[in-house]
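ARCHIVE CARD
Drawer: 12
Card no.: 0347
Subject: one protein chain, sequence and derived structure
Cross-reference: see card 0346
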Amino acid sequence: MATILQFDFPYPGPWGADGAKALKDLADSIAAEPGLIWKAWTENEAEGIAGGIYYFKDEPSALAYKDMHAARLASFGIKDIRAKVFDINEGLSEITRFKNA
């Protein structure tokens, strides 16, 4: 079953276009992860929080990525990492225009 993974954590920046340039190699690496369908990068500069919403083809892929990415973030010195895994209610999500890729 398709699975959503949510990460958020304290982040000092860079933000926006500067962040896109600085994190391009990381984005390329994430795009190649097994089972990943898409990722939306999230940021809230006013609150100093960043993260992402990930859509995986199945729960095992999401869980494997969750463990690996939490360790990678910790290796960058990031603390207070929050990660949550969610099943998708496809019936309701279809009504609200969710597209299952």
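Annotation on reverse: The mean pLDDT is 94. Helices lie at 16-22, 24-31, 59-75, 90-95.
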